[in-house]
Amino acid sequence: MDNPSSKPLLLCLILSCLLVGSWAESSSKIGINYGRVGNNLPSPYQSIQIIKSMKAGRVKLYDADPEILKLLGGTKLEVSVMIPNDEIINIAANQTSAAQWVHDNVLLFYPDTMIRFILVGNEVLSYSSDYDKEIWHNLVPAMRRIKAALRAQGIKNIKVSTPLAMDVLQSTFPPSSATFRSDISENVMPPLLHFLNSSKSYFFLDVYTYFPWSANPKNISLDMALFEGNVKHTDPGSGLVYTNLLDQMLDSVNFAMEKFGYPDIRLAISETGWPNSGDLDQIGANVHNAATYNRNLIKRMTANPPLGTPARPGVAIPTFIFSLYNENQKAGPGTERHWGLLRPNGTSIYDIDLTGDRQLSDYDPLPPPVNNEPYRGELWCVVAEGANLMELPSALNFACSQGNETCAALTPGRECYQPVSVISHASYAFSSYWAQLRSQGASCYFNGLAVQTTNNPGVRGCVFPSVTL
Ligand SMILES: *[C@@H]1O[C@H](CO)[C@@H](O)[C@H](O)[C@H]1NC(C)=O
Ligand SMILES: *[C@@H]1O[C@H](CO)[C@@H](O)[C@H](O)[C@H]1NC(C)=O
Ligand SMILES: *[C@@H]1O[C@H](CO)[C@@H](O)[C@H](O)[C@H]1NC(C)=O
Ligand SMILES: *[C@@H]1O[C@H](CO)[C@@H](O)[C@H](O)[C@H]1NC(C)=O
Ligand SMILES: *[C@@H]1O[C@H](CO)[C@@H](O)[C@H](O)[C@H]1NC(C)=O
Q1: Where is the signal peptide, in residue numbers (predicted)?
Q2: DSSP string of 393-405?
Q3: Which residue range is the domain that position 441 belongs to?
C-alpha cells in the first residue's frame, strides 16, 4: 500500500479543522422565532430585512408559508419550517402524502432557501384529547415518512424533529431525578428517541425559566432564572453543580433521555425568552429582566468553544429566541403578547446583539425592574380604554354565561343595574367573571377588550367582585 504523502494528509487535517471550526460556528448562531399572530406586523418582506439586519443566523417559522420561504431564498439564514399538528395524521398515513408535503414546502424552495430543520407539529405532547392522542401515535411515523421523502430526493442536510415543552417531564428537579411523563414513556418516547438518535437529529425543547420562576418566586431565585446568580446548586443525585435554571431544565431532559439509554441525543432550543411586559398580577415581566435574560442567553449560547450544560459540557445547543415581535393577537395573559424583541412597528424594545460579539458591559444601562415582587392587593378587570364598543355586548354575554350567578347583580332592580350602560355592565361582568374563574386559568383579556386595574370601579352600593393577591 502506498504511504500517502504528507501533503494530502496535512490538507486533510486542515480541512477537517476547517470543517470542525465552521460546524461549531454554525451551531452557535442564534435563531429567531418569526411568529405572526398579530394584525399590525410588518410585511414578510420587511420582516426578513429586519431579521437580516439583526444578524440572526437562523429563523424558525410556525408553518411553511410559500411567500416567506421564497423571500428567504438567497439569504444566509438557516430556516426551520413546521408541519401543523393537524396534518400529522395524514402524513403518517402514507408515503405519497409525505412526499407531496416535502415537494410543496421544501423542494420548491430548497436549496436556494437554506431549509435545515423540518419540525413535525408544535408541542404535540402537551395536548391530550382523544384526537390529540391519535396525533401522538402518528408523530414518529410522520417524522419517519418525512425523513424518507427527503432521503428519496438525496437531501441529507435537513434534520427532522418535533418541538416539545417541559411538560413532557414528570418531574424536573433535581435534574438527575427527571423522567418522562408516564403516559408517553411507554409508547411515544421510545420510538421518538430512537428516531432522533439514529437520524442524528436534535431533541427540540421549548424551555422558559420564566414559568417555573414566576410560579414559584419564593423558592427559585430570580438571579438563577436570569443567569445572574453566583449561588451554586449541587444536584445531590449527580453531584453536578448548577448556577442557572436553564441548565437545570436542559439537563433534566438530558437525564430523562439518558435513562432511556440515549446519552448522545443533542438538545436544541426551539423557543426560549422572557416577556418584556404583562398584566398587573404577573410578576417579573419587564424590559429589565427580558433584556438581561436574552443578552445572557446569547452570550452563553454563542460561546466558542461551546459551554454546553453540566451534564453535557462542551456540546453546542442551537437556540431560537422567542420571539421576533410582540404579537397582539395571542390569547391568554398579558405576557403572551409581550415576548418580542421588537414592537409591532419594527423598533426594538431593548438593545440586543444576536451575534454575541458585544460585551455585556457595552450595553446601555437598563430601566430598573418594575415588578420583580408579586403584586399585593385587590385587582379588578374592566373595559379597556379604546375598546371596540361593537364587540362589548358579545363579550358581556360570554362573561355572564360563565361561572355561577356571575351577572346576577346586573339584573333590573339589583344593585349594579344602574347605570344602564354597556361599558359599566361589561366592566362588572368582566370583574365578576375573572374573580370567580381566575384560579381556573381565566384571563382578564377578552380579546383586548378588558384590562386589569387597581382602581376600584365600584359605584353607589354596587360592589365589583375583585381578585385579592
Ligand atoms: C395517501 O393519502 C392521501 C391523503 O389522505 C390519499 O388521497 C391517497 O389516496 C393515499 N394514497 C394511498 C396510496 O393510500
Ligand atoms: C444511538 O446512535 C449511536 C450512533 O449512531 C449508536 O451507536 C447507538 O447504539 C444508538 N443508541 C441506541 C440506544 O440505539
Ligand atoms: C418551597 O420549598 C419548600 C422547602 O423546600 C417546600 O416545602 C415548599 O412546598 C415549596 N413551595 C412551593 C410553593 O413549591
Ligand atoms: C414605534 O412604536 C413605539 C411605541 O408605540 C413608538 O414610541 C415609536 O415612535 C414608533 N416608532 C416608529 C418608527 O414608528
Ligand atoms: C358552581 O356551583 C357548583 C355547585 O355549587 C359548583 O360545583 C361549581 O364548581 C361552581 N362553578 C364555579 C365556576 O364556581
Answers
A1: 1-24
A2: HHHHHHHHHSSSS
A3: 378-468
- Which CATH number goes with the domain that contains 28? 3.20.20.80
pTM for the model stands at: 0.91
Say whether both 139 and 202 belong to one domain.
Answer: yes
The C-alpha cell that represents 171 in the structure block? 418531574
What residues flank ligand 3, with Cβ below 6 Å? Answer: 216, 219
Ligand 1 neighbour 96 (Cβ under 6 A) = yes
> Mean pLDDT per 10-residue run, the chain (469 residues)?
37 40 57 98 98 98 98 98 98 98 98 98 97 98 98 98 98 95 97 98 98 96 94 96 98 98 98 98 98 98 97 98 97 96 98 96 94 96 96 98 97 96 97 97 95 94 96
Return the active site residues: 123, 271
441: domain CATH number is 1.20.58.1040
Residue nearest (by alpha carbon) to ligand 2 atom 14: 194
Ligand 2 pocket, residue 263 CB under 6 Å: no
Which of 219, 220, 221 has the most ligand 3 atoms within 8 A of CB, as the residue to mutate?
219
Q: How far is CA 77 from CA 35, 240, 275, 334, in A?
A: 16, 36, 25, 31
Please say whether the beta carbons of 60 and 318 come within 8 A.
Answer: no
Does 369 fall in a domain?
A: no
Cell numbers for 19, please give them: 470543517
The CA distances from residue 137 to 93, 169, 188, 310, in Å, are 11, 18, 7, 33
Q: Ligand 2 center to residue 200 CA distance, Å? A: 9
Say how many Å lie between the CA of residue 215 and the centre of ligand 3.
Answer: 12
Number of structural domains found in the chain: 2
The minimum-distance atom of ligand 4 relative to the CA of 345 is: 1
**Per-residue model confidence (pLDDT) at position 24:** 40
pLDDT at 27: 57
Ligand nearest to the CA of 404: 5
Query: Does residue 458 belong to any structural domain of this protein?
Result: yes
Per the structure block, which three cell numbers stand in for 304? 466558542
Question: How far does the centroid of ligand 4 lie from the alpha carbon of residue 343, in Å?
Answer: 8
Last residue of one domain, picked from the residues 362, 389, 413: 362
Q: Could you tell me if residue 370 is inside a domain? A: no
